[in-house]
Amino acid sequence: MKNCDLNSRLVYSTEQGVICPECSWALDNCICQKIKKAIIPVTDGVVRLRYETKGRKGKGMTIITGLALNEDEFLELAKKLKQRFGAGGAVKDFTIQLQGDFCQQAAQELNKLGYNVK
Question: How many CB atoms lie within 10 A of CB 90?
Answer without folding.
Answer: 13
